[in-house]
């Protein structure tokens, strides 16, 4: 089986190199290419990756690709490379595959027509951190393949047949939302999205603060952060996402809720049940 690994990075060279080392161990014996979008790193990421892993295909990003833009760029280059792939593996550069991680992922039922999301845990192995959700919430692995409604993009297998139907990540998304939108769209079109039966790698939860929810931050700074791709608010994108998958009513409620929480942080939101 031939596959392409899709990655994007920005200014965390040691983390990126560690990720590639874990990938190399997990993918030993497999036929694969790595496409790494270096989104304007100034810490020497490109040069150090090229020295350590000369086989990695490094793509120069715009400097403002963020996660979705970077993954989209890497996927576009891989898909247009002329190399015949059986599928594509998304891999976040802060996620470290276990030695048997890909063996577990590639044992999924009907791998050629199924999106598979890897269950990810903390470095100490005690806490499920990423993977996906069903209609009731976040799902930890339980020893069997579980159907998801939406997934996290840390480690995801997208087979060629699914890419032919769904294409690349939607250009509407800048940083967040691309992975959950892709999985929701797949499920709505009858494409299975499954969670691996056990952990296949580690990644700590993203503990970045959200200044737009902090009452000690000045109002204008809160609103600026709310609309920043790194603020994880992005009201217009959240509106588009909710309207696409949950209807106009939910989209309006979410849009109003985000602004209420930025304007009045710490106060209960009156407009969302």
Would you mind describing this structure in some detail?
- With 273 residues, the chain is α/β, with parallel strands linked by helices.
- It has 2 domains: 2-202, Alpha-Beta Complex (Spore Coat Polysaccharide Biosynthesis Protein SpsA, Chain A), CATH 3.90.550; 211-263, no CATH class.
- It is built from 9 helices and 13 strands.
- Strand 2 (31-38), helix 2 (45-52) and strand 3 (57-60) form a beta-alpha-beta unit.
- The chain is globular.
- The mean pLDDT is 91.
Low-confidence stretches: none
Q: How many distinct helices?
A: 9
CATH topology of the largest domain: Spore Coat Polysaccharide Biosynthesis Protein SpsA, Chain A
Sheet with the most strands, sense and barrel status = 10 strands, mixed
Give the overall shape.
globular
Number of domains: 2
What is the SS-derived class?
A: alpha/beta
**What is the CATH top level name of the largest domain?**
Alpha Beta
How far apart are the termini? 48 Å
